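Dear colleagues,

As part of the handover before I leave the project, I'm documenting each prediction I ran so the next person doesn't have to rerun anything. This entry is a single chain, and its sequence is reproduced below.
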Amino acid sequence: MSYIFVTQPSELRDLVWRLRDVPTIAYDTEFISEGQYSSLLCLVQVAAGGIHAIIDPLAIGDLSPFWNLVCSGEKEIIVHACRCEMEFCHRAIGILPKQLFDVQLAAAFTEAEYPIGFRSLLDRTLHIDLPKEESRTSWNKRPLTARQIEYAIGDVLYLEQIAEVLKSQLINADRLNWYESEVLELQSRLVHDFTNARWRHVSKASSLNSRELAILREVWFWRDQVAKKRNSPPSRFLRDDLLIELARRKTSDPKRIAAVRGFQRMDLAKCIPEISDAIDYALKLPLEDLPPVSDRLSYPQYAVITQFLYAAIGSLCRKERIALQLVAGPNDIREFIADELGTISQNIKPRLKSGWRAEFVGNMLHNLLSGKTTIRINPHNAEEPLIFTPQQ
């Protein structure tokens, strides 16, 4: 198989020119995330209109001509598990492709597995088995070997064919509109993630009160600045669980900070004065400047009912061949229950009560909770053990 190896800005411009009239572009990336503040983009593989290309960002630097083409809105962009591909694009030019087809997301509407790896999806849709031995390769090393290049090209070579198979399956299952609404939600969520600080996503942050959240926020931002200067993963320098511990202790006393287990490490101990200043700033904030507590703590968690409904949804998903992980998680179900029982905050809109999720499971859950539908065990089918029966 022939391909273009793009290593010069002029070659990139030539490739973009050749792709100007193709309706569809499939692309993938290879990168290094270990030990980095931000993932290092090492390769971009492209398949479009019979053209196969490998773009070398380490040699070229600025890939904005390619990203502008991808985001022109004139072409359908096909990817697998799009988050990383979208992040590199957004980091470069600040926008995302308008016509996006993510084969991993599409497959979740026709299979009971999500997320599914590319090679597993390729085998399932086209019955093609590709080698996996280069999945942990050092993509920043040059020159690339023939085996590395073959592996990289394999990630895009069949994307368009996979997309065609999945589109046909979505249409036959009458779920294409479900997919399209979900991909719009995904794009919106990615833009939010790429443009907003994620300090609230620290594990157990939702259990903190307003003052503790302020401490978490200030120390998180301080850690982020230090990690960026060092080009190091923030959590490697100062673990998330230590951020939570500092927030809960609510003290800027350097001696009490130093007493926290984990701060005995030399490089971290040297930073205690700066951490103390960040905490002190948060402790002195007036009440009106404190971050609000999450509304999702304002209602009971309904553990037993959640487990019951989660099992019901799982059974339905297996029967209808749609991935449970895509449809709902425990938090989605808890919010649905709280809304049904009138204990939810007005600021929370349950995902299972809008869009395709309401159509697929929302009505069923409502009928189960209200007694309009009952469940009995089917002893003859271990894969689909629950039978839902509407009450007259």
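Residues 4-195 form a domain with the Nucleotidyltransferase; domain 5 fold (CATH 3.30.420.10). The chain has a mean pLDDT of 93.

All the best with the project,
I.
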